[in-house]
Amino acid sequence: MRFVFWVSFLLSVQELQAQVLFDSLYTIRRDTLFFAFGEHALRPRSDSVMLDFARKARTIPRCRIRITAHTDSIGSSAANEVLSQQRAAAVAGALKALAIADSSITTSIYGERRPIRENASAEGRQLNRRATLALQVQRKFVRLRGRLADPDTGDGIRGYIRYLGDSIPTDSSGAFALAAPLGTTLPLEAYAPKRFYYSQALDLTRSQPGEDLRINLERIQAGKVFPISNLFFVSSKAVLLPRSVPELPKILRFLEANPRIRVEIAGHMNAPFQAPVPKGSWEYDLSLRRARLIYDYLIDHGISPFRLQYNGYGNWEMRYPRATTAPEFAQNRRVELRVLD
What we know:
Blueprint lengths: L12 H6 L2 E14 L12 H12 L5 E7 L6 H21 L7 E7 L10 H7 L1 E20 L10 E4 L2 E4 L5 E7 L3 E7 L6 E6 L9 E4 L8 E8 L15 H10 L5 E5 L14 H19 L7 E5 L13 H7 L1 E6 L2
Parallel strand pairs: 2-3, 4-10, 12-13
Antiparallel strand pairs: 1-4, 2-4, 4-7, 5-6, 5-8, 8-9, 11-14, 12-14
């Protein structure tokens, strides 16, 4: 593969025993409820979310539920603290009515202090008028350390790590530290300006890394092709496989972290042992529609169309021109990012 993105792990039971383990709460489900301006009553559309959340919670012994409540920035900060407290109480009351024990619920009140979007727009304010539900269980955690680095020079890279829905910055040397739950597969992402992003799952189901994680991020250069991991399609369709849908927000975050680059979204299809398909054919159109699917997603989520273009490549650049297995077929049905400038 043209770009090398790797994590160097040494897995050892002996080293596992030497690591610092501790108990903490691990979130296994998150939901968000939104409120009307100035209101704390739950909207009717929240009923199905609450019912499903409570149903799941009742099946897990000794689980904990954490509620956080937030507002937009309209009005005084004191009034917004009161409003967020009322929203938290409304959510907690609804859970109790669904047979959730009061002793398992904790609430945190943030008012307008933790917005997830700018309050300058109506859309941003609506997203900030929210309460979150986190379903948590007690798990063994381990403290992990790592470093973002240039693959050629080894120099540290300042960026940020995203895991379990949270983001943590690296220091000037690229170093970071995080707490990871044992017995899970931990999705790990890394982003930095002027660098391609990294996405991998860290397997902690049996043991843990015995040495620090090293994540190499390749420098962005015009003309480079970035192979997106796990972005694959249903056979003969411009429809993503369900396991590939979580890759879309990662592409979005990569472009948000690098607002000055322009990219082409390149679509491909699987037709091994066949001559190159011509433009205008159904096969070529399939590769084009796959690229257009990603293009539309990025446009819909705020990326300027001036930064994007999309193109189809039919079966002209298959990774496996003589593919015979399902994994090879999937690799041929893909989308890539090509840096324009």
